[in-house]
């Protein structure tokens, strides 16, 4: 469906009596099926099964329209579970849909996102947007060129209470330093690997690329853009980043997918003139994905880019690529 059709649908949703136009959740109000934006899902892996598909099916402000996957049998299974159309060709899905949600490896996602944007589809991207700066920039440029909306699903920026906590800390000043760790047991030296252990790109790229975007997505809005980065390796796939921010604050992030199961966990602590503040816990990831879709539909309706869009995703790729280059050196 072309961009003109998308804008018309989103405008119709707004004009259908939306009582909370200025709120992110305004796009999720109950509206007749014929007026709801149609969402197509690309990808059929564990993340699509556990998060994307349930959230899209539950979202009251849009219509889960169909699934495409690189494995046709897996796409048919997932589509059948939700009673939606299975697509053999991603371009056919783009033609039928207003929004495309991605649950694909980053280097598969990026070129398809460029094609979807050219077809006039708004983009609900996964992180990282790509693992090369060239590919990530191509996505951001396609979004700008074709005037579509984009949001990157960075869990901590949409889950609650973490999203509210980030906004609160970003409103404070006087931060001195921060320390973050995201230690996953996807490939633990002990015990059973996680459901994501069969992911080839995670095996190749490790924690830097898989969980690094999460840490940066919190540190940057609070402390400012990264002006200097230094990366060193530890045991397993551990990478430690030392960062300097535009505010003058310094931060560190320790990242891994190969932590022992007893050592796995996530944490982030800020220290400054207003004291010590720690990232709260979160849950309900499908709910967070629904809020990311709300944010995307709001950006599409208003024409105001979301700060968590493809441009921010490209910036994350630039920083991670720079860190990876230092490790390779």
Task: Quickly describe the structure.
The protein is of the alpha/beta class. The chain has 11 helices and 12 strands.
How would you describe the overall organization of this protein?
- The chain is α/β, with parallel strands linked by helices.
- It is built from eleven helices and twelve strands.
- Strand 2, helix 3 and strand 3 form a beta-alpha-beta unit.
- The protein starts with a helix and ends with a helix.
- The N terminus is likely disordered.
* Largest β sheet strand count, sense and barrel closure: 6 strands, parallel
Distance between the termini: 46 Å
- Shape by Cα distribution: globular
Say what oligomer this is: single chain
State which percent range the strand residues make up: 15-25%
Q: How helical, in percent, are the residues? A: 40-55%
Q: What integer value in Å does the Rg equal?
A: 19 Å
Strand order of the largest sheet: 3-2-1-4-5-6
The low-confidence parts are 2-31
Order of helices and strands: HEHEHEHEHEHEHEHHEEEEEHH
Mean pLDDT metric? 90
Q: How many strands appear in the DSSP assignment?
A: 12
Look at the helices and sheets and give the structural class: alpha/beta
